[in-house]
C-alpha cells in the first residue's frame, strides 16, 4: 500500500471525455455501448486525507473518484461500476473500526456506506479484506447493497456461518439502450478472484476456516457454467496482477492465463497497485500496454486508494440470441496529476454524499490517531532506509525483540541468539515522493505508531539455521540492481522490488556486495542458486556458519512465507504471539516513555572504489543530510515524478 502514483500531465489527464472515448457518441442503431468502470485497492480511503501526516491530500480518496464516476455515468447510456477488492483494511480508519470501536451486527461499516452511496453494481474480495478476521468481514459485508463474489474462496471445516453463502459469481440482468434508443435485456456475468496465498498470509485468521483455490482452475470450471446459465458477457474481477504468461498452479498474479480462458470478455485487475494501460507492463508477451489488452481482451488496473478510475468501453453487436464484443477501449482517469513546478493538481472535487457517509468515522479516527503515547528524542523517518541503517526500522526491530525476549522464556528456544527482522513500509517507489514515514522529535501519537508499522500483522518467531539466515538476507538484497564496479551513476534500486521486502535483521552484521548478481528476483523467485551478495555475516564478532541456529523475530506475513524468504514457513515457526506488531510497538514506546533508537551499523554496502550509484528519495530528505555519518552522499539533481536524486559513492 502506498501513496498513489500520479500520472504526468498528458492526454489522459487533459483531454475531454469525448476525445478519450470515441464510443461516447451515439452508437449505430443496432449496437449497444456498455461502459464498465472499476476501482481497486481502496484500502478504506474514503476521504482525501492522509491520517499519518494528519493533512488533506488531493491524490487519494473514493470521494474524489466518485466525481469521475458521476461524470462518466452521465456521458454514457449504459454503465456498470465494480470494485476489485482490498477495501476494508489499509489506513487508520480501518484499524479504528476493527480494533478500537468494533463493528456490531447491523452497523454499517463506513467504507461500505461510502460504496453504497456511490452505487456499485458488484465487487470481489482482496487479500487484505481478511486481515481482521472472517467474522468482521462477514459483518461488514452485511451492509453492502451490491453482491460480493469470490469464485476461488474455499471455506474450510471451521468456516463461520455465512462464508459459504458468498456467491462465486452472479448474473446481473440490466436493461440497456442501443443507438436507436431501443431497450434490450442484457445478462452480465460477474466472477471474482482473490490471490490464492491468502491462507499463508493470514494464517492466524484462516487456518482451517478458508483458503484460496487456483484462479485459472476456478475460471475454467465456472465460466462455461455462467454461459450456460445465460450470461451474454462475462466480466472477471481479478484481485490479481499481470504476472507470468503461463499458468502456474495457485499463482498470485494470474491475469495473463485468466485472459486466455474462452468465455471471459473483460479483465478488471488490481492487487499490484500499478496502472494499466500504461508503461508499468510494457514488454510483456501477450500484453499490449498501450491499447490496454491482455491476450487481445480489454483490461484495466486503476492504481490504488482511488487514485484512478479504470474504464472499459465495449461496443456490442447481436450474435444470434446473444451479444458479442465488436470493439473495445481501455482507459484510465486520474483524480490528480503532478505537474512540474506546480506539485499535485487535483482533477476532481469530492463528492458530498460519499463524505457524509463516512463523516462520523472520519472525525472519530482523527481523535483516535492524535492521542500521544510517548516521545522520541531522535527523528524517525524513512528517507534513507533503503541505503543505510535507519532509526524508523530499528525501533520496530527493537520492540519485536523486547517482546519476544520475555515470551520465549521457558521455551526450548530461550537460549538461542535472538535476532529481529524489520523492513521499511513507506519508502517512496510506486508510492511517490511523499510516501515516507516522518516522525519528528517530540510526541509520538497513535497515528505515528501506525505510520511506523502500517499493517495489522501479529508477532511471530521463526527458528533458522545460519544457511537460512544468509538466504533470508540474500532475498532482501534482491531490491538492488547489479552494479558494475568502476562505473559512474548507475541506478541503485530495482523498481519491481517493493521496499517492504527489504528486511534488515538486527543482531548480526553483514555487507551487501552490489557487484555480484542477486540470488533471488522480486517475489522470491530463485534466479541464481550460486549467487551470493551477503559478505562478512557475523554474530558477536564471529562468522556465522551454516549449522548455527537463531530465532528471528518477525511478523505473521513474513513468518508464514510471505515474500518467499528462506527460513520462513509453518515448519520454521517457533512462537506465534497473540499480539499485533503495532500494539507491541505502542507498548514498547509507552513503557519507555521517551525512545531514542540508534541506527546500529548492522549492514553496509561493500566498498567499490570509483563507483557511484543514483538513489531517488523525497525532496524532504534534503533537510536530513546532516544526520548521515557513514554514507558518502550528495545531491544529483531532480529525479522523475517529483523525487530528488542523490549520488552515493560506494
TrEMBL record:
Read off the NCBIfam families from this record.
PRK09420.1 (NF006938)
Official protein name in the record: Bifunctional 2',3'-cyclic-nucleotide 2'-phosphodiesterase/3'-nucleotidase
Domain annotation Calcineurin-like phosphoesterase: ranges: 35-273
- Alphabetic keyword roster: Hydrolase, Metal-binding, Nucleotide-binding, Signal
Q: Which InterPro entries match?
A: 5'-Nucleotdase_C, 5'-Nucleotdase_C_sf, 5_nucleotidase/apyrase, Calcineurin-like_PHP, CpdB_N, Metallo-depent_PP-like
Keyword field contains Nucleotide-binding: yes
Per UniProt, residues of the 5'-Nucleotidase C-terminal domain are 391-566
Q: Give the species.
A: Rhodovulum visakhapatnamense
Pfam families in the cross-refs: 5_nucleotid_C, Metallophos
Q: The organism sits in which domain of life?
A: Bacteria
- Is Zinc-finger among this UniProt entry's keywords? no
Q: What family does the entry list? A: Belongs to the 5'-nucleotidase family.
Amino acid at each position: 500500500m502506498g501513496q498513489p502514483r500520479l500520472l504526468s500531465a498528458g492526454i489522459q489527464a487533459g483531454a475531454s471525455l469525448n476525445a478519450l472515448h470515441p464510443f461516447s457518441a451515439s452508437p449505430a442503431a443496432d449496437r449497444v455501448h456498455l461502459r464498465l468502470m472499476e476501482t481497486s485497492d481502496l484500502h478504506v480511503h474514503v476521504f482525501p486525507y492522509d491520517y499519518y501526516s494528519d493533512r488533506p491530500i488531493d491524490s487519494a480518496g473514493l470521494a474524489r473518484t466518485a466525481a469521475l464516476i458521476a461524470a462518466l455515468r452521465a456521458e454514457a447510456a449504459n454503465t456498470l461500476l465494480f470494485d476489485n477488492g482490498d477495501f476494508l483494511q489499509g489506513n487508520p480508519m480501518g484499524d479504528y473500526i476493527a480494533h478500537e470501536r468494533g463493528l456490531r451486527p447491523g452497523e454499517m461499516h463506513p467504507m461500505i456506506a461510502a460504496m453504497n452511496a456511490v452505487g456499485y453494481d458488484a465487487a470481489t474480495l482482496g487479500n487484505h479484506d481478511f486481515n481482521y478476521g472472517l467474522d468482521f468481514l462477514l459483518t461488514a459485508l452485511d451492509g453492502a447493497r451490491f453482491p460480493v463474489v469470490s469464485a476461488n474462496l474455499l471455506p474450510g471445516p471451521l468456516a463461520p456461518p455465512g462464508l459459504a453463502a458468498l456467491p462465486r459469481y452472479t448474473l446481473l440482468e440490466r436493461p440497456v439502450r442501443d443507438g436507436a434508443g431501443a431497450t434490450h435485456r442484457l445478462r452480465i456475468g460477474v466472477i471474482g478472484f482473490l490471490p490464492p496465498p491468502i491462507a499463508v498470509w493470514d494464517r492466524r485468521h484462516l487456518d482451517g476456516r478458508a483458503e484460496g483455490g487456483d484462479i485459472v482452475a476456478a475460471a475454467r470450471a465456472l465460466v462455461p457454467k455462467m454461459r450456460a446459465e445465460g450470461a451474454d458477457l462475462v466480466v472477471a474481477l481479478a484481485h490479481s496482477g499481470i504476472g507470468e504468461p503461463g499458468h502456474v498452479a495457485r499463482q498470485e498474479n494470474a491475469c495473463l492465463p485468466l485472459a486466455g480462458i474462452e468465455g471471459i470478455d473483460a479483465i478488471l485487475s488490481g492487487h499490484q497497485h500499478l496502472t494499466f494501460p500504461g508503461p508499468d507492463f510494457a514488454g510483456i508477451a501477450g500484453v499490449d500496454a498501450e491499447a490496454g489488452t491482455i491476450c487481445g481482451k480489454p483490461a484495466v488496473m486503476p492504481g490504488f486508494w482511488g487514485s484512478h478510475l479504470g474504464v472499459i468501453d465495449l461496443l456490442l453487436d447481436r450474435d444470434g440470441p446473444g451479444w458479442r464484443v465488436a470493439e473495445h477501449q481501455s482507459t484510465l482517469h486520474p483524480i490528480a496529476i503532478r505537474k512540474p513546478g506546480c506539485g499535485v493538481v487535483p482533477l476532481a472535487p469530492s463528492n458530498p454524499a460519499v463524505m457524509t457517509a463516512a463523516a462520523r468515522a472520519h472525525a472519530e479516527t482523527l481523535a483516535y490517531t492524535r492521542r500521544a503515547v510517548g516521545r522520541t528524542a531522535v527523528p524517525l523517518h524513512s528517507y534513507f532506509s533503503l541505503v543505510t541503517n535507519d532509526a524508523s526500522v530499528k525501533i520496530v526491530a527493537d520492540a519485536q525483540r523486547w517482546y519476544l525476549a520475555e515470551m520465549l522464556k521457558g521455551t526450548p528456544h530461550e537460549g538461542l541468539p535472538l535476532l529481529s527482522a524489520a523492513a521499511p513500509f513507506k519508502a517512496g517507489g510506486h508510492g511517490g515522493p511523499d510516501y515516507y514515514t516522518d516522525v519528528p522529535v517530540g510526541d509520538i501519537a497513535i497515528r505515528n505508531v501506525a505510520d511506523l508499522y502500517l499493517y495489522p500483522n501479529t508477532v511471530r518467531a521463526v527458528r533458522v539455521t545460519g544457511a537460512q539466515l544468509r538466504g533470508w538476507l540474500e532475498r532482501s538484497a534482491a531490491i538492488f540492481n547489479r552494479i558494475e564496479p568502476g562505473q559512474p551513476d548507475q541506478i541503485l534500486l530495482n523498481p519491481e522490488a517493493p521496499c517492504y521486502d527489504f528486511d534488515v535483521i538486527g543482531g548480526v552484521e553483514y555487507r551487501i556486495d552490489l557487484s555480484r548478481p542477486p540470488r533471488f528476483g522480486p517475489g522470491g523467485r530463485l534466479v541464481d542458486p550460486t549467487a551470493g551478495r551477503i559478505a562478512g555475516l557475523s554474530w558477536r564478532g564471529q562468522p556465522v556458519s551454516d549449522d548455527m541456529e537463531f530465532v528471528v523475530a518477525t511478523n505473521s506475513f513474513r513468518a508464514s512465507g510471505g515474500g518467499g524468504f528462506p527460513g520462513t514457513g509453518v515448519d520454521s515457526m517457533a512462537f506465534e504471539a497473540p499480539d499485533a506488531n503495532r500494539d507491541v510497538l505502542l507498548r514498547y514506546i509507552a513503557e519507555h516513555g521517551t525512545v531514542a533508537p540508534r541506527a546500529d551499523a548492522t549492514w553496509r554496502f561493500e566498498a567499490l572504489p570509483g563507483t557511484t550509484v543514483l538513489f531517488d528519495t523525497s525532496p524532504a530528505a534534503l533537510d536530513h543530510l546532516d544526520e548521515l555519518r557513514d554514507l558518502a552522499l550528495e545531491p544529483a539533481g531532480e529525479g522523475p515524478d517529483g523525487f530528488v536524486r542523490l549520488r552515493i559513492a560506494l
